[in-house]
Amino acid sequence: MFSPLSRHWSATVSELLDGFPVVVLSGARQVGKSTIALALARERGGTYLTLDDVSIRTQALADPDGLVGGQQGFVVFDEVQTVPDLLRAIKLSVDRDRRPGRFLLTGSANLLRQRTVGESLAGRSAWIELPPLLWSEIAQRPFPKTLDAAFAAGDAADLVRQMPAASLDRIAEARTRAIAGGMPPTLPLSETLRRAWYDGYRQTFLERDLRQLADIENLPEFVRLLNVAALRTATLLNQSALARDVGLSHATLRRYLSLLEVAYQFYELPPYFANLGKRLVKTPKLYAVDVGLVAYLGGLVSWNDAAAQGRAGAMLETWAIGELRALDRLSSAQSTMSFYRTSSGSEVDLVLERGPRIVAIEVKAGTSVGSGDLAGLSELRDRLGARFHLGIVATLGETAVVLGDRLCAIPLPSLLGVTAEPSVPR
């Protein structure tokens, strides 16, 4: 019997509730928001109300002030995006009583970007975006502090000394995770059942969740965009080509892409801008939030399928960047995140900036590092000078090694904080 896994985010949400009247926990459907919310409601002796319940949603629509005002103590409102006016009622209640830990709200849409949401709870709330399960959560490992270690390391050799070797089993598991993703309900399922789950997830998103967010004039075109965008994860977002391939106007494409971001299905990583005396690409990169959905839409059952289609690198990059993006949000200091790419094609997958220091990470699906794998990192190092603290090639190799001045290779399992033997059946 599969039991819910503990999340790195649980302690953070609890800590924020001790300091804010309202905490908003958002993220895609099925990433585990309700599990965290229910656990905290039990722990704090609170009330859990889900707006997926028709009777509660009807009451919230008819009398949001009465529903909010009738609650005592700590209250969870789950899937609050279905009744945006509830936020106004919560704001009025909090303005009368600003005790911390009054409300935990969850939402499967980015409330700050929903046009129907007129209240942001500014100054009264803390906001957290919950991703799919991280690998370290699936493996039940402590929260990885590897990004903090990278920024604090004295040099490349210092970081290499801190990074344990990765077992072959963990490297094989990384390939599996880069296809399967981390949606909690899919973990105990066979491949056949996982695909059936994603089929239902896709239909629910298209037929229910999407219609709660906006009107879609032409659903088949939106479905084509979802499929094509998934196949282009980890690539530059060429809106003209995407609009042409899907058969949409530029205005409709932008609106549909925005909906996919609001629903936490995709996100954009901005390009790095700096006066480096070189022409830099100004187009963002598009990433899917869940590689499991990408694999389902692309018909990928295994890593070998992805490799045969020439998509292994994009799948690994999508998964690894998502993991690192999430780890950074829970680190001691959050980074400004971007990617580096020049018009001539030199590229670094992830640029993390904390104050005067920059740590750059290149994700590679190979087990060894060639000179070509260092080109982007070396160029960025030389152009940034002292600001460039460390460059890391995250590989599927077994050991960490120094590669040169401020450059090193780190096994991806080690960078993501998973080096012990697998603890969850694959």
Describe this structure in words.
Strand 3, helix 5 and strand 4 form a beta-alpha-beta unit. The strands form three sheets. The chain has a six-stranded mixed β-sheet, sandwiched between helices. Strands 2-3-4-1-5 form a five-stranded parallel β-sheet, covered by helices on one side. 45% of the residues are buried. It is globular and about 65 Å long. The chain has two domains: 9-129, 3-Layer(aba) Sandwich (Rossmann fold); 135-415, no CATH class. Helix 9 packs across helix 14 (291-298) and helix 9 (168-180) crosses helix 16. Helices cover 42% and strands 17% of the residues. It is of the alpha/beta class. The model is unreliable at 422-426 (pLDDT under 50). It has 18 helices and 14 strands.
In what order do the strands lie side by side in the largest sheet?
A: 9-10-11-12-14-13
> Tally of extended strands?
14
Task: Please give the largest β-sheet.
Answer: 6 strands, mixed
| Alpha carbon gyration radius | 22 Å
Distance separating the two termini:
15 Å
Gross morphology: globular
Pick out the low-confidence regions.
Answer: 422-426
Tally of DSSP helical segments: 18
Could you tell me the strand content as a percent range? 15-25%
